[in-house]
Design goal:
Number of domains: 2
Strand content: 5-15%
Helix content: 55-70%
Low-confidence stretches: 5-9, 538-545
Number of helices: 25
Structural class: mainly alpha
Strand order of the largest sheet: 4-3-5-7-6
Largest sheet: 5 strands, mixed
Protein backbone atom coordinates (compact mmCIF):
# COMPACT_ATOMS: atom_id res chain seq x y z
CA UNK A 1 0.00 0.00 0.00
CA UNK A 2 1.38 3.39 -0.99
CA UNK A 3 0.60 6.76 0.56
CA UNK A 4 -0.76 8.83 -2.26
CA UNK A 5 0.68 12.26 -2.65
CA UNK A 6 -1.34 15.42 -2.18
CA UNK A 7 -0.25 16.49 -5.65
CA UNK A 8 -2.65 13.89 -7.03
CA UNK A 9 -5.54 16.06 -5.95
CA UNK A 10 -7.29 17.69 -8.90
CA UNK A 11 -6.03 21.30 -9.18
CA UNK A 12 -9.56 22.70 -9.15
CA UNK A 13 -10.15 21.12 -5.73
CA UNK A 14 -7.07 22.71 -4.21
CA UNK A 15 -7.84 26.11 -5.74
CA UNK A 16 -11.46 25.93 -4.59
CA UNK A 17 -10.48 25.07 -1.01
CA UNK A 18 -7.91 27.84 -0.79
CA UNK A 19 -10.29 30.43 -2.23
CA UNK A 20 -13.14 29.49 0.12
CA UNK A 21 -10.76 29.45 3.08
CA UNK A 22 -9.35 32.88 2.17
CA UNK A 23 -12.85 34.35 1.89
CA UNK A 24 -13.82 32.96 5.28
CA UNK A 25 -10.62 33.88 7.10
CA UNK A 26 -10.41 37.32 5.54
CA UNK A 27 -13.98 38.25 6.37
CA UNK A 28 -13.79 37.02 9.96
CA UNK A 29 -10.42 38.68 10.59
CA UNK A 30 -11.57 42.02 9.19
CA UNK A 31 -14.92 42.10 10.97
CA UNK A 32 -14.30 40.87 14.51
CA UNK A 33 -11.58 41.44 17.09
CA UNK A 34 -9.84 38.80 19.17
CA UNK A 35 -12.69 37.60 21.33
CA UNK A 36 -12.55 37.41 25.09
CA UNK A 37 -12.12 35.19 26.90
CA UNK A 38 -10.67 32.26 24.97
CA UNK A 39 -8.83 33.97 22.10
CA UNK A 40 -7.41 36.82 24.18
CA UNK A 41 -6.32 34.39 26.89
CA UNK A 42 -4.53 32.15 24.39
CA UNK A 43 -2.53 35.03 22.92
CA UNK A 44 -1.85 36.55 26.34
CA UNK A 45 -0.25 33.30 27.51
CA UNK A 46 2.06 33.50 24.49
CA UNK A 47 2.77 37.17 25.26
CA UNK A 48 3.77 36.40 28.84
CA UNK A 49 6.05 33.63 27.57
CA UNK A 50 7.61 36.16 25.20
CA UNK A 51 8.02 38.72 27.98
CA UNK A 52 9.50 36.36 30.54
CA UNK A 53 11.65 34.27 28.24
CA UNK A 54 10.37 31.18 30.09
CA UNK A 55 9.53 28.83 27.24
CA UNK A 56 9.07 25.80 29.47
CA UNK A 57 6.15 26.77 31.73
CA UNK A 58 3.30 28.88 30.28
CA UNK A 59 2.02 31.63 32.57
CA UNK A 60 -1.20 33.62 32.76
CA UNK A 61 -1.13 36.80 34.82
CA UNK A 62 2.16 35.71 36.34
CA UNK A 63 0.84 32.32 37.50
CA UNK A 64 1.75 28.97 35.87
CA UNK A 65 -0.96 28.11 33.36
CA UNK A 66 -1.62 24.38 33.39
CA UNK A 67 -4.77 24.14 31.28
CA UNK A 68 -2.95 23.78 27.94
CA UNK A 69 0.48 22.59 26.77
CA UNK A 70 2.82 25.08 25.09
CA UNK A 71 3.03 24.11 21.40
CA UNK A 72 0.71 26.83 20.11
CA UNK A 73 2.59 29.39 22.20
CA UNK A 74 5.89 28.18 20.75
CA UNK A 75 4.53 28.53 17.22
CA UNK A 76 3.23 32.03 17.95
CA UNK A 77 6.60 33.02 19.39
CA UNK A 78 8.36 31.62 16.31
CA UNK A 79 6.27 33.93 14.13
CA UNK A 80 6.93 36.89 16.42
CA UNK A 81 10.64 36.15 16.19
CA UNK A 82 10.42 36.41 12.40
CA UNK A 83 7.84 39.20 11.98
CA UNK A 84 7.88 41.02 15.30
CA UNK A 85 5.10 41.00 17.88
CA UNK A 86 1.81 41.41 16.07
CA UNK A 87 -1.82 40.31 16.14
CA UNK A 88 -2.15 38.96 12.60
CA UNK A 89 0.23 36.02 13.04
CA UNK A 90 -1.66 34.41 15.98
CA UNK A 91 -4.90 34.95 14.05
CA UNK A 92 -3.44 33.29 10.95
CA UNK A 93 -1.73 30.30 12.60
CA UNK A 94 -4.68 28.08 13.72
CA UNK A 95 -6.62 28.77 10.48
CA UNK A 96 -3.54 27.61 8.52
CA UNK A 97 -3.70 24.32 10.40
CA UNK A 98 -7.41 24.24 9.57
CA UNK A 99 -6.56 24.61 5.87
CA UNK A 100 -4.02 21.82 6.27
CA UNK A 101 -6.77 19.63 7.73
CA UNK A 102 -8.81 20.09 4.55
CA UNK A 103 -5.93 18.85 2.39
CA UNK A 104 -5.16 15.99 4.78
CA UNK A 105 -8.81 14.92 4.62
CA UNK A 106 -8.56 14.82 0.84
CA UNK A 107 -5.30 12.87 1.06
CA UNK A 108 -6.83 10.38 3.48
CA UNK A 109 -9.77 9.92 1.10
CA UNK A 110 -7.34 9.10 -1.72
CA UNK A 111 -5.76 6.42 0.43
CA UNK A 112 -9.06 4.95 1.63
CA UNK A 113 -10.68 4.90 -1.82
CA UNK A 114 -7.95 5.19 -4.48
CA UNK A 115 -10.37 4.21 -7.25
CA UNK A 116 -12.90 6.96 -6.35
CA UNK A 117 -11.22 10.36 -6.86
CA UNK A 118 -14.52 12.21 -6.45
CA UNK A 119 -14.45 11.44 -2.72
CA UNK A 120 -11.12 13.23 -2.36
CA UNK A 121 -12.62 16.32 -3.99
CA UNK A 122 -15.90 16.21 -2.11
CA UNK A 123 -14.82 15.34 1.45
CA UNK A 124 -12.88 18.55 2.27
CA UNK A 125 -15.74 20.69 0.96
CA UNK A 126 -18.19 18.81 3.16
CA UNK A 127 -15.85 19.36 6.10
CA UNK A 128 -15.50 23.08 5.42
CA UNK A 129 -19.27 23.37 5.08
CA UNK A 130 -20.06 21.97 8.56
CA UNK A 131 -21.31 24.92 10.57
CA UNK A 132 -19.16 24.22 13.63
CA UNK A 133 -16.05 23.74 11.52
CA UNK A 134 -16.83 26.92 9.57
CA UNK A 135 -17.03 28.86 12.82
CA UNK A 136 -14.05 27.43 14.68
CA UNK A 137 -11.55 27.09 11.84
CA UNK A 138 -10.88 30.83 12.17
CA UNK A 139 -10.69 30.95 15.99
CA UNK A 140 -7.38 31.32 17.82
CA UNK A 141 -7.60 28.13 19.87
CA UNK A 142 -5.81 24.81 20.10
CA UNK A 143 -8.30 22.54 18.36
CA UNK A 144 -7.20 22.93 14.73
CA UNK A 145 -3.68 21.87 15.71
CA UNK A 146 -5.07 18.74 17.38
CA UNK A 147 -7.17 17.79 14.36
CA UNK A 148 -4.18 18.30 12.06
CA UNK A 149 -1.94 15.96 14.03
CA UNK A 150 -4.73 13.42 14.52
CA UNK A 151 -5.23 13.23 10.75
CA UNK A 152 -1.52 12.66 10.15
CA UNK A 153 -1.44 9.88 12.76
CA UNK A 154 -4.51 8.18 11.26
CA UNK A 155 -3.12 8.44 7.75
CA UNK A 156 0.08 6.75 8.93
CA UNK A 157 -1.89 4.13 10.88
CA UNK A 158 -4.03 3.14 7.91
CA UNK A 159 -1.09 2.83 5.56
CA UNK A 160 1.10 1.04 8.09
CA UNK A 161 -1.59 -1.62 8.43
CA UNK A 162 -1.08 -2.60 4.81
CA UNK A 163 2.71 -2.63 4.63
CA UNK A 164 5.51 -4.80 5.98
CA UNK A 165 8.31 -2.24 5.78
CA UNK A 166 6.59 0.51 7.69
CA UNK A 167 8.82 1.72 10.52
CA UNK A 168 8.94 5.27 9.18
CA UNK A 169 5.15 5.33 9.25
CA UNK A 170 5.10 4.33 12.92
CA UNK A 171 7.70 6.97 13.70
CA UNK A 172 5.70 9.61 11.82
CA UNK A 173 2.54 8.55 13.67
CA UNK A 174 4.33 8.77 17.02
CA UNK A 175 5.80 12.18 16.22
CA UNK A 176 2.40 13.57 15.18
CA UNK A 177 0.76 12.15 18.30
CA UNK A 178 3.47 13.68 20.46
CA UNK A 179 2.96 17.08 18.84
CA UNK A 180 -0.80 16.66 19.28
CA UNK A 181 -0.30 16.04 23.01
CA UNK A 182 1.83 19.18 23.18
CA UNK A 183 -1.07 21.01 21.49
CA UNK A 184 -3.94 20.05 23.80
CA UNK A 185 -3.05 17.02 25.86
CA UNK A 186 -3.59 13.24 25.75
CA UNK A 187 -7.04 13.53 24.13
CA UNK A 188 -5.09 13.42 20.88
CA UNK A 189 -4.53 9.70 21.45
CA UNK A 190 -8.20 8.73 21.59
CA UNK A 191 -9.06 8.42 17.85
CA UNK A 192 -5.70 6.80 17.12
CA UNK A 193 -6.06 4.19 19.85
CA UNK A 194 -9.70 3.50 18.96
CA UNK A 195 -8.84 2.95 15.30
CA UNK A 196 -5.82 0.81 16.21
CA UNK A 197 -7.84 -1.41 18.55
CA UNK A 198 -10.42 -1.90 15.79
CA UNK A 199 -7.90 -3.04 13.19
CA UNK A 200 -9.19 -6.66 13.03
CA UNK A 201 -12.50 -5.20 11.87
CA UNK A 202 -11.35 -2.73 9.22
CA UNK A 203 -8.35 -4.72 8.02
CA UNK A 204 -9.51 -8.24 7.27
CA UNK A 205 -7.58 -11.17 5.80
CA UNK A 206 -4.40 -10.25 7.63
CA UNK A 207 -2.06 -12.98 8.88
CA UNK A 208 -1.18 -13.48 12.52
CA UNK A 209 2.34 -12.23 11.82
CA UNK A 210 0.93 -9.03 10.34
CA UNK A 211 -1.14 -8.43 13.46
CA UNK A 212 1.88 -8.96 15.71
CA UNK A 213 3.89 -6.46 13.67
CA UNK A 214 0.97 -4.04 13.72
CA UNK A 215 0.65 -4.20 17.51
CA UNK A 216 4.40 -3.68 17.83
CA UNK A 217 4.21 -0.65 15.57
CA UNK A 218 1.33 0.86 17.54
CA UNK A 219 3.25 0.38 20.80
CA UNK A 220 6.34 1.96 19.21
CA UNK A 221 4.32 4.99 18.08
CA UNK A 222 2.76 5.43 21.52
CA UNK A 223 6.15 5.17 23.23
CA UNK A 224 7.53 7.85 20.91
CA UNK A 225 4.49 10.07 21.55
CA UNK A 226 4.93 9.65 25.30
CA UNK A 227 8.65 10.43 25.03
CA UNK A 228 8.00 13.65 23.09
CA UNK A 229 5.34 14.87 25.51
CA UNK A 230 7.30 13.88 28.63
CA UNK A 231 10.39 15.62 27.28
CA UNK A 232 8.45 18.80 27.98
CA UNK A 233 6.14 17.72 30.82
CA UNK A 234 8.74 16.39 33.26
CA UNK A 235 11.07 19.43 33.21
CA UNK A 236 8.04 21.72 33.22
CA UNK A 237 6.56 19.91 36.23
CA UNK A 238 9.82 20.30 38.11
CA UNK A 239 10.13 23.97 37.18
CA UNK A 240 6.49 24.95 37.71
CA UNK A 241 6.13 23.66 41.26
CA UNK A 242 4.01 20.95 42.95
CA UNK A 243 0.59 22.37 42.03
CA UNK A 244 1.54 22.83 38.40
CA UNK A 245 3.07 19.35 38.29
CA UNK A 246 -0.07 17.79 39.78
CA UNK A 247 -2.24 19.59 37.26
CA UNK A 248 -0.35 18.68 34.06
CA UNK A 249 0.48 15.13 35.11
CA UNK A 250 -2.92 14.25 36.60
CA UNK A 251 -5.58 16.96 36.42
CA UNK A 252 -5.32 17.47 32.66
CA UNK A 253 -5.18 13.72 31.94
CA UNK A 254 -6.99 11.19 34.08
CA UNK A 255 -8.59 13.94 36.13
CA UNK A 256 -10.67 15.03 33.15
CA UNK A 257 -12.22 11.57 32.92
CA UNK A 258 -13.08 11.43 36.59
CA UNK A 259 -14.41 14.89 37.27
CA UNK A 260 -14.26 17.96 35.10
CA UNK A 261 -13.24 21.25 36.66
CA UNK A 262 -15.15 23.04 33.88
CA UNK A 263 -17.95 22.36 31.41
CA UNK A 264 -19.23 19.33 33.33
CA UNK A 265 -22.25 17.86 31.54
CA UNK A 266 -24.20 14.55 31.45
CA UNK A 267 -23.03 11.67 29.24
CA UNK A 268 -25.84 12.14 26.69
CA UNK A 269 -25.20 15.86 26.17
CA UNK A 270 -23.60 15.44 22.72
CA UNK A 271 -26.49 13.41 21.28
CA UNK A 272 -29.03 16.24 20.81
CA UNK A 273 -26.22 18.55 19.67
CA UNK A 274 -25.14 16.41 16.72
CA UNK A 275 -27.87 17.59 14.29
CA UNK A 276 -26.88 21.18 15.02
CA UNK A 277 -23.10 20.86 14.86
CA UNK A 278 -23.22 18.84 11.63
CA UNK A 279 -25.60 21.28 9.97
CA UNK A 280 -26.30 21.69 7.03
CA UNK A 281 -25.65 18.05 6.12
CA UNK A 282 -28.16 16.80 8.71
CA UNK A 283 -30.94 18.46 6.67
CA UNK A 284 -29.50 17.59 3.26
CA UNK A 285 -31.81 15.42 1.12
CA UNK A 286 -28.72 14.28 -0.78
CA UNK A 287 -27.15 12.91 2.39
CA UNK A 288 -30.23 11.12 3.71
CA UNK A 289 -31.13 9.74 0.30
CA UNK A 290 -27.75 8.04 0.04
CA UNK A 291 -27.04 7.02 3.63
CA UNK A 292 -28.34 3.58 2.74
CA UNK A 293 -25.05 3.11 0.93
CA UNK A 294 -23.41 2.33 4.26
CA UNK A 295 -21.62 -0.76 3.02
CA UNK A 296 -19.75 -2.36 5.91
CA UNK A 297 -17.77 -4.50 3.50
CA UNK A 298 -15.96 -1.31 2.48
CA UNK A 299 -12.70 -1.12 4.49
CA UNK A 300 -12.63 2.67 4.18
CA UNK A 301 -16.09 2.97 5.73
CA UNK A 302 -15.12 0.58 8.52
CA UNK A 303 -11.96 2.60 9.21
CA UNK A 304 -13.92 5.86 9.49
CA UNK A 305 -16.54 4.27 11.76
CA UNK A 306 -13.83 2.78 14.00
CA UNK A 307 -12.44 6.29 14.43
CA UNK A 308 -15.79 8.05 14.78
CA UNK A 309 -18.10 5.91 16.96
CA UNK A 310 -15.74 4.70 19.74
CA UNK A 311 -14.21 8.19 20.06
CA UNK A 312 -17.66 9.74 20.43
CA UNK A 313 -18.46 7.22 23.18
CA UNK A 314 -15.23 8.01 25.02
CA UNK A 315 -15.84 11.75 24.79
CA UNK A 316 -19.36 11.22 26.09
CA UNK A 317 -17.89 9.46 29.13
CA UNK A 318 -15.47 12.31 29.82
CA UNK A 319 -17.18 14.69 32.22
CA UNK A 320 -16.14 17.96 30.55
CA UNK A 321 -17.94 18.67 27.28
CA UNK A 322 -17.97 21.43 24.70
CA UNK A 323 -19.19 21.16 21.10
CA UNK A 324 -15.77 22.06 19.70
CA UNK A 325 -14.19 19.13 21.57
CA UNK A 326 -15.59 16.94 18.77
CA UNK A 327 -13.88 18.78 15.91
CA UNK A 328 -11.41 15.95 15.35
CA UNK A 329 -14.38 13.67 14.49
CA UNK A 330 -15.62 15.93 11.70
CA UNK A 331 -13.19 14.65 9.04
CA UNK A 332 -14.50 11.11 9.64
CA UNK A 333 -18.05 12.33 9.06
CA UNK A 334 -16.98 14.26 5.96
CA UNK A 335 -15.30 11.19 4.51
CA UNK A 336 -18.36 9.04 5.15
CA UNK A 337 -20.72 11.65 3.70
CA UNK A 338 -18.52 11.99 0.62
CA UNK A 339 -18.50 8.21 0.22
CA UNK A 340 -22.30 7.99 0.49
CA UNK A 341 -22.89 10.68 -2.10
CA UNK A 342 -20.32 9.53 -4.66
CA UNK A 343 -21.96 8.27 -7.80
CA UNK A 344 -25.39 9.54 -6.79
CA UNK A 345 -27.62 11.84 -8.77
CA UNK A 346 -28.85 15.21 -7.59
CA UNK A 347 -32.45 16.14 -6.94
CA UNK A 348 -34.05 19.38 -8.07
CA UNK A 349 -34.71 20.45 -4.49
CA UNK A 350 -31.48 19.30 -2.83
CA UNK A 351 -30.48 22.89 -2.10
CA UNK A 352 -33.92 23.88 -0.85
CA UNK A 353 -33.17 23.34 2.89
CA UNK A 354 -30.18 25.66 2.54
CA UNK A 355 -32.31 28.18 0.69
CA UNK A 356 -34.88 28.11 3.49
CA UNK A 357 -32.08 28.48 6.05
CA UNK A 358 -30.64 31.54 4.31
CA UNK A 359 -34.04 33.19 4.05
CA UNK A 360 -34.83 32.42 7.70
CA UNK A 361 -31.55 33.89 8.96
CA UNK A 362 -32.07 36.91 6.73
CA UNK A 363 -35.58 37.49 8.10
CA UNK A 364 -34.28 37.21 11.67
CA UNK A 365 -31.55 39.75 10.98
CA UNK A 366 -34.19 42.14 9.71
CA UNK A 367 -36.90 41.52 12.29
CA UNK A 368 -35.08 41.09 15.61
CA UNK A 369 -33.30 44.49 15.57
CA UNK A 370 -36.60 46.18 14.86
CA UNK A 371 -38.86 44.23 17.23
CA UNK A 372 -36.68 42.57 19.92
CA UNK A 373 -39.61 40.18 20.45
CA UNK A 374 -39.75 41.00 24.15
CA UNK A 375 -36.31 39.46 24.66
CA UNK A 376 -33.71 41.24 26.71
CA UNK A 377 -30.97 41.87 24.16
CA UNK A 378 -27.86 44.07 24.14
CA UNK A 379 -28.40 47.64 22.90
CA UNK A 380 -26.27 47.11 19.81
CA UNK A 381 -28.81 44.59 18.42
CA UNK A 382 -31.17 47.43 17.51
CA UNK A 383 -28.45 49.03 15.38
CA UNK A 384 -27.84 46.01 13.13
CA UNK A 385 -28.49 47.09 9.56
CA UNK A 386 -31.35 45.29 7.77
CA UNK A 387 -29.27 45.28 4.57
CA UNK A 388 -27.43 42.14 5.71
CA UNK A 389 -30.69 40.33 6.22
CA UNK A 390 -31.91 41.44 2.80
CA UNK A 391 -28.72 40.13 1.16
CA UNK A 392 -29.20 36.75 2.83
CA UNK A 393 -32.83 36.59 1.72
CA UNK A 394 -31.86 37.31 -1.88
CA UNK A 395 -29.07 34.71 -1.67
CA UNK A 396 -31.57 32.17 -0.33
CA UNK A 397 -34.01 32.85 -3.15
CA UNK A 398 -31.19 32.46 -5.66
CA UNK A 399 -30.08 29.16 -4.09
CA UNK A 400 -33.66 27.87 -4.25
CA UNK A 401 -33.98 28.85 -7.91
CA UNK A 402 -30.54 27.57 -8.95
CA UNK A 403 -30.82 24.47 -11.14
CA UNK A 404 -28.98 21.52 -9.57
CA UNK A 405 -27.53 18.96 -11.94
CA UNK A 406 -24.94 16.95 -9.99
CA UNK A 407 -24.27 15.86 -6.41
CA UNK A 408 -20.98 17.75 -6.54
CA UNK A 409 -22.90 20.95 -7.26
CA UNK A 410 -25.04 20.33 -4.18
CA UNK A 411 -21.96 19.84 -1.98
CA UNK A 412 -20.09 22.85 -3.33
CA UNK A 413 -23.20 25.04 -3.22
CA UNK A 414 -24.02 24.02 0.36
CA UNK A 415 -20.48 24.81 1.48
CA UNK A 416 -20.56 28.18 -0.26
CA UNK A 417 -23.93 28.97 1.38
CA UNK A 418 -22.57 28.23 4.86
CA UNK A 419 -19.45 30.32 4.36
CA UNK A 420 -21.51 33.16 2.94
CA UNK A 421 -23.91 33.00 5.88
CA UNK A 422 -21.12 33.03 8.47
CA UNK A 423 -19.48 35.98 6.74
CA UNK A 424 -22.74 37.94 6.60
CA UNK A 425 -23.51 37.26 10.26
CA UNK A 426 -20.02 38.38 11.26
CA UNK A 427 -20.35 41.56 9.22
CA UNK A 428 -23.84 42.29 10.58
CA UNK A 429 -23.12 41.54 14.23
CA UNK A 430 -19.63 42.93 14.71
CA UNK A 431 -20.31 46.12 12.79
CA UNK A 432 -22.32 47.06 15.89
CA UNK A 433 -21.15 44.69 18.64
CA UNK A 434 -17.44 45.32 18.22
CA UNK A 435 -17.23 47.86 21.10
CA UNK A 436 -18.65 45.21 23.45
CA UNK A 437 -16.00 42.63 22.52
CA UNK A 438 -12.95 44.67 21.53
CA UNK A 439 -10.79 44.82 24.66
CA UNK A 440 -8.10 46.97 23.04
CA UNK A 441 -9.34 50.37 24.40
CA UNK A 442 -9.45 49.08 27.98
CA UNK A 443 -6.12 47.31 27.53
CA UNK A 444 -4.41 50.47 26.22
CA UNK A 445 -5.79 52.47 29.14
CA UNK A 446 -4.43 49.89 31.58
CA UNK A 447 -1.08 50.10 29.81
CA UNK A 448 -1.06 53.85 30.28
CA UNK A 449 -1.82 53.43 33.97
CA UNK A 450 0.92 50.82 34.25
CA UNK A 451 3.41 53.29 32.75
CA UNK A 452 2.34 55.94 35.25
CA UNK A 453 2.93 53.52 38.11
CA UNK A 454 -0.69 53.13 39.23
CA UNK A 455 -1.28 49.74 40.90
CA UNK A 456 -4.08 47.80 39.18
CA UNK A 457 -6.53 45.29 40.64
CA UNK A 458 -9.08 43.20 38.76
CA UNK A 459 -12.29 42.34 40.59
CA UNK A 460 -12.90 38.59 40.55
CA UNK A 461 -11.09 36.15 38.26
CA UNK A 462 -8.85 37.67 35.59
CA UNK A 463 -8.51 35.67 32.36
CA UNK A 464 -5.67 37.63 30.81
CA UNK A 465 -7.88 39.36 28.25
CA UNK A 466 -5.95 42.65 28.46
CA UNK A 467 -2.35 41.53 28.70
CA UNK A 468 -1.49 41.01 25.04
CA UNK A 469 -3.78 43.69 23.63
CA UNK A 470 -2.26 46.28 25.97
CA UNK A 471 1.23 44.71 25.97
CA UNK A 472 1.09 44.75 29.78
CA UNK A 473 4.34 43.80 31.50
CA UNK A 474 3.12 43.25 35.05
CA UNK A 475 0.43 40.96 36.48
CA UNK A 476 -2.85 42.45 37.62
CA UNK A 477 -3.82 41.90 41.21
CA UNK A 478 -7.01 39.91 41.63
CA UNK A 479 -9.47 40.42 44.45
CA UNK A 480 -12.83 39.34 45.75
CA UNK A 481 -13.90 42.92 46.31
CA UNK A 482 -16.33 42.10 49.12
CA UNK A 483 -13.70 40.56 51.36
CA UNK A 484 -10.30 41.59 50.05
CA UNK A 485 -10.73 44.99 48.41
CA UNK A 486 -10.59 47.07 51.61
CA UNK A 487 -7.18 45.64 52.47
CA UNK A 488 -5.84 46.18 48.95
CA UNK A 489 -7.24 49.72 48.84
CA UNK A 490 -5.47 50.69 52.06
CA UNK A 491 -2.15 49.50 50.66
CA UNK A 492 -2.62 51.22 47.26
CA UNK A 493 -4.25 54.63 47.70
CA UNK A 494 -3.32 55.63 44.12
CA UNK A 495 -4.45 52.36 42.65
CA UNK A 496 -7.13 51.67 40.07
CA UNK A 497 -9.92 49.09 40.31
CA UNK A 498 -11.38 47.33 37.25
CA UNK A 499 -14.84 45.94 37.96
CA UNK A 500 -17.87 44.83 35.94
CA UNK A 501 -21.49 45.82 36.44
CA UNK A 502 -24.63 44.53 34.76
CA UNK A 503 -26.11 47.99 34.39
CA UNK A 504 -24.67 51.46 34.34
CA UNK A 505 -25.14 53.49 36.43
CA UNK A 506 -28.16 51.83 38.05
CA UNK A 507 -26.26 48.88 39.55
CA UNK A 508 -23.37 50.94 40.91
CA UNK A 509 -23.39 51.95 44.61
CA UNK A 510 -23.71 55.63 45.31
CA UNK A 511 -20.48 57.40 46.04
CA UNK A 512 -18.40 55.67 43.40
CA UNK A 513 -16.86 57.97 40.80
CA UNK A 514 -15.86 56.19 37.60
CA UNK A 515 -12.72 57.10 35.75
CA UNK A 516 -13.71 55.06 32.68
CA UNK A 517 -16.82 53.18 31.53
CA UNK A 518 -17.15 50.91 28.49
CA UNK A 519 -19.55 48.18 27.36
CA UNK A 520 -18.07 44.70 27.83
CA UNK A 521 -19.75 41.42 26.83
CA UNK A 522 -23.23 42.46 27.86
CA UNK A 523 -21.98 44.26 30.97
CA UNK A 524 -20.01 47.41 31.68
CA UNK A 525 -16.32 47.50 32.47
CA UNK A 526 -15.68 50.29 34.94
CA UNK A 527 -12.34 51.65 36.14
CA UNK A 528 -12.48 53.44 39.48
CA UNK A 529 -9.95 55.10 41.74
CA UNK A 530 -9.14 53.33 44.96
CA UNK A 531 -10.05 56.44 46.93
CA UNK A 532 -13.49 56.42 45.33
CA UNK A 533 -14.08 52.92 46.65
CA UNK A 534 -12.78 53.89 50.07
CA UNK A 535 -15.17 56.82 50.15
CA UNK A 536 -18.12 54.54 49.28
CA UNK A 537 -16.96 52.10 51.99
CA UNK A 538 -19.97 50.28 53.36
CA UNK A 539 -21.97 50.55 50.16
CA UNK A 540 -19.24 48.74 48.27
CA UNK A 541 -19.14 45.94 50.82
CA UNK A 542 -22.86 45.35 50.53
CA UNK A 543 -23.02 45.53 46.76
CA UNK A 544 -22.64 42.69 44.30
CA UNK A 545 -22.25 43.57 40.59
Amino acid sequence: MKIRSIDQMPPITGISLICLWLILWGCVTLTRPLLPIDETRCVSVAWEMWQSGNFLVPHLNGIPYSHKPPLLCWLILSGWKLFGVNEWWPRLLPPLFGLGCLFLTSLLARNLWPDKPDIASRAPHILLGCVLWTLFTTVVMYDMLVVFFVLISLLCLYNAAGRRSRYWLWLAAGASLGLGILSKGPVTLIPYVMAAVSVPWWRKNASGKDHVQFVGGVILSLILAAAISLAWALPAAQSGGPEYAKSILWGQTAGRFAESFAHGRPWWWYVPMIPVILFPWTVSPLFWRNIRKLDLSDSGIRFCLSWLIPSLIVFSIISGKQVYYLLFLFPAFALLAARFTTGSSAGRFDLMPLAVFLVTVGVLLMVIPAVHCGISLPPWVAKVSPIYGLILILAGLFAGWLPVRTAGTVVWGSTLCMIFTVCMIHAAVFSQARPDYDVRPIALLLKDMEKKGHPLVHVNTYYGQYHFMGRLEKPLDETDYIHEAPTWLKKHPEGRVLAYFRKWPASVPSGLTPEYVRPYMGKYAVILRSRSWQTAGGAVKRHTP
